[in-house]
Amino acid sequence: MKRTHHCNELRAPHIVQTVSLAGWVHVRRDHGGIIFIDLRDREGLTQVVFDPEHNPKAAELSHGLRSEFVIAVEGTVRARPAGTENPKLPTGAIEVLAHNLTVLNPSETPPFQIEDSGGTLAGEDLRLQYRYLDLRRPSMAKNLILRHKVAKTTRDYFDQHGFLEVETPILFKSTPEGAREYLVPSRVNPGKFYALPQSPQQFKQMLMVAGVERYFQLAKCFRDEDLRADRQPEFTQIDVEMSFIDREDMYALIEGLLAQVWQVARGEKIPTPFPRMPYIEAMERFGSDKPDTRFGMELVDVSDDFKQSKFKVFRGAVDAGGVVKALNAKGLACVTQGQIDNLTETAKSFGAKGLAFIKVEGGQWKSPIVKFFNDAEKAAMTAKLKIEEGDLILFGADKREVVWEVLGRIRLIVAEMLNVKREGWNFLWVVDFPLMTFDHETNRYLSTHHPFTAAVAEDVPLLDTDPHKVRGQHYDIVLNGVELGGGSIRIHQPDVQKKVFEDVLKIPKEIAETRFGYMLTAFRYGAPPHGGIALGFDRLCAILCGSANIRDVIAFPKTAKAMDLMTNSPAEVEPKQLRDLHVKLDVET
RNA sequence: GGGGGCGUAGCUCAACUGGUUCAGAGCGCUGCCCUGUCACGGCAGAGGUUGCGGGUUCGAGCCCCGUCGCUCCCGCCA
To answer: Residue A22: what are its φ and ψ, rounded to 5°?
Structure first.
């Protein structure tokens, strides 16, 4: 009795057909005589009716059905009696009158209900322990299906554009400058280790030297860093690299991909090309290099208005070469002192010395600092910040990087407090990042992204004189305040790459040689100009599903402590395994 | 490494300031009844070491210390 249809397939035109369905008992409604079963499979629900007057044997057997029993049913599709159709189900116009019932496998009572609606969702730890049950929930099945569709669309898109999907090694070599890596001891090479790749970066560049020209891969990547709602220790990237291109080619390519993905996954047209914003502008206006541009509340620079101010905090910041910036939280004058204190704590945790504010209530400016302001300063602020009754103005005064960070965070928190409408899909290219940032701890320059990023051509002469002024040919794709991905045009000249390693980043010559020597060698054999990008595939799928959490789009994710609760991994291993690997443990027990 | 939240029945949660509604509700589960339900309905019932270990107290689900687990954030994620 093989099934003829799935559970979201039968409609009015199938009426009178004899069909077979198989699936799980979703719910049972036993009226004593007639019995209704909602039969569930991956695709949906179909109501099956057992009628003792029609088939006493099947009806009798159906009394014993319980949640999650696996059954097969043979029956006739028929219209539901007038008035009993269920408009909530796609299959709600019909039902299957069962002739035969086979219990393929009974089920114990599940530890939680396999149900999306009903209001109670079991705790995530329990759902992770019984992930195979959690994945039966229609919303999770939907997520898996959507993820598949996005993957398929991606592969089709790149195939149509002449790309080859090439697999790169999972057993790679340690490259300690980036994220912490997972290490794999080598049995046949005692004392030596592989590392799992944080990304296929170096391999994809080698593929360009190899003449592949257009490469992509749905690549598994691994980072042994602490987890977040949008970070798992293993995750998937849409990894791309192309030869003979410039930044414009990459923007167009990715815009086309995302337009196609949105079309397939959500049936929505997204406008292209996407707007672009230089890094400096993003920081000045939004205090973030991944600005959420769905709402305003932008940072406004008022430094000039306080150059002569009597308020020492503001004037001092300007005198020291810093800035004074403010944002207007429209309508938040009702904020409580406790909430102000919380905001201040937040500001301090990001490096601010405090958080000055003005409440505009009852036609007055209420603030501990308002007494320091003269009329000109007040007028300037009123105009620049469009201050009105009911507003709350929040200030940052410090080095500009600190003010960016602090007000950027405050802006997001305040938007949350105000429940500001954030709708639509605001794609944005953030461009012109600084190639290098100075690290005060180690007293040297570090690559903002990675050391393979090429400089903007006109800035190259500054590499020797003003490294911090050099812009990289790097681009981030941002959607609604989430960094979806990033990439760059790469350095392809061996002398330039060597110079970046040794002269600019001050990586000792021997270390540069052991870690990247093969790249420099490769570049000497006719490396084409090339560039690439990588998009966070899990984040992309989560956004498309409307979830803030990438665990919802990963079949078997790990907890915040990087545990797999279903298999209890990681776990201890046998002493013999360790001996084979030449590994001795040093752990407290 | 640091900070916040949570942990009470199989599940989701309640239990005011530590004390006579102090172990409760809804769902699920079990039994009986029920022939058009789809959150089916009715009657009855079972089910608890309040995560674990200490402590304070006449008295602890509630307070304190430790510990374990889940979660969010900071650091970290070239």
So the answer is: -140, 145
**Residue with CA nearest B69 C1'?**
A125
A55 Cβ within 7 A of any nucleic strand B atom? no
DSSP structural state of residue A456: P
What value does the mean pLDDT take over residues A153-177?
Answer: 95
Rounded Cα–Cα distance for residues A263 and A508 (Å): 49
Determine if the peptide bond prior to A273 is cis (ω within 30°): yes
Are the beta carbons of A297 and A408 closer than 8 angstroms? no
Using the CA of A200, which nucleotide's C1' is the nearest one?
Answer: B78
> Which 3-state string (H, E, C) describes A272-335?
CCCCEEEHHHHHHHHCCCCCCCCCCCCCEECHHHHCCCCCHHHHHHHHCCCEEEEEEECCCCCC
Domains defined for chain A, CATH in brackets: 12-105 (2.40.50.140), 141-277+426-554 (3.30.930.10), 295-417 (3.30.1360.30)
Q: Cβ of A401 < 7 Å from strand B?
A: no
Beta strands in A422-538 (DSSP E): 427-431, 436-439, 444-447, 474-479, 482-489, 530-536
d(CA A352, CA A28): 60
pTM of the model as a whole: 0.94
Following CA atoms A374, A375, A381, A384 in sequence, which dihedral angle do they give, to the nearest 10 degrees? -140
Contact flag, residue A123 CB and nucleic strand B, below 7 A: yes
Answer for the pair A71, A98: CB distance below 8 angstroms, yes or no: no
Strand B contact with A81 (CB < 7 A) = yes
Instruction: Quickly give A260 CA vs B72 C1' distance in Å.
Output: 33
For A440-478, the pLDDT digits (tens) are 777 788 888 889 999 999 998 888 888 889 999 999 999
Would you state the pLDDT for residue A360? 94
Q: What is the pLDDT of residue A274?
A: 98
Does A223 have pLDDT greater than 90? yes
Nucleic strand B near CB of residue A328 (< 7 Å) = no
The pair of three-digit structure tokens given for residue A483, joined into one six-digit string: 């960094």
The amino acid at residue A474 is H
> What is the model's pLDDT at position A380?
94
pLDDT digits (tens, 9 = 90+) for A358-385: 999 998 999 999 999 999 999 999 999 9
ipTM value for the complex: 0.93
Residues 341-370 of A with CB under 7 A from strand B: 349
Residue A586: band (very low, low, confident or very high) from pLDDT cuts 50, 70, 90: confident
Contact A454, A489 (CB under 8 A): yes
Q: Which pair of tokens denotes residue A243?
A: 């030869």
- What is the CA angle A12-A18-A22, rounded to 5? 95
Protein CA A179 to sugar C1' B78 (Å): 7
Q: What's the average model confidence in pLDDT over A488-495?
A: 96
Collect all residues with Cβ–Cβ distance below 8 Å to A393 and sequence separation of at least 6.
Answer: A326, A327, A328, A329, A357, A358, A360, A381, A385, A387
Kindly determine whether the C-beta of residue A480 is less than 7 Å away from any atom of nucleic acid strand B: no
Short-list A25, A130, A20, A97, CA closest to A68: A25
pLDDT computed for residue A117 by the predictor: 66
Place of tokens 């993820």: A147
Across-strand partners of A38?
A27, A47
Cβ pair A253, A240 in contact under 8 A: yes
Residue A524: what residue type? R
